[in-house]
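Hi R.,

Here's the chain you asked about this morning:
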Amino acid sequence: MIRLHVTHGLEAGPLLAIEAAQAHYLTHVMRLRVGGELRLFNGRDGEWRARLAAIGKGVCQLEILERTRGQTVSPDLDLVVALVKRARLETIVEKAAELGARRVRLALTERTNTERTNVARLAAIAVEAAEQTGRLDVPEIAAPERLDRLLAAWPADRPLMFCDEAGEAAPALEALAGRTRGPWGVLIGPEGGFSPRERALVRSVAGAVPVSLGPRVLRADTAAIAALTLWQAALGDLRGT
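And the predicted structure, written out as tokens:
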């Protein structure tokens, strides 16, 4: 079943006109024809069954039929990741969406090798991953921010799982055992790791929980996938309600 993220409000009855890029995707990429069905979601109104009602030049009209699922949201989890090379960063965003992160916050560190990224492209990748994985919300992609500023404003009531490959830390599942479910963050460093000053800064944050991801040095994209999976297994929706 084709799933499409839209920004419009969703309710049964009215016809919905969708933008040219999405119309092209439905009719040329997915080859949907008039009468074909799909699912729509907007992050607010749940998931709806819809039918392709008409195809025009650069536009499609969808008939909204019925709601198939009520709205749910992913765990309140922020993935904070240092800017890395484009391909790896795109993989991180895609997998963060697949693994249920609610937000991806981009950090500029002392060892970051780039200070710019295409946030709009990353947001589009997050939307596509949400469409494919069946989730009903799309993770927010925040613009890059210097790590020290991000940490200075870090909420005291949001624990921060600090994936520290350079220091002494308990294995992730051991460090998370017995912790309270709720708002959390996961912090992944840049290629080359955090500087000693940054490591000390992170560890000084109220609620910081240093963890180890194992005996091997992981690339940033692998570390992000491993950390999100471990957090979800310990405190998130992989363990159910």
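The helical segments are 20-29, 86-98, 119-133, 147-152, 172-176, 196-203, 220-235.

Let me know if you need anything else.
M.
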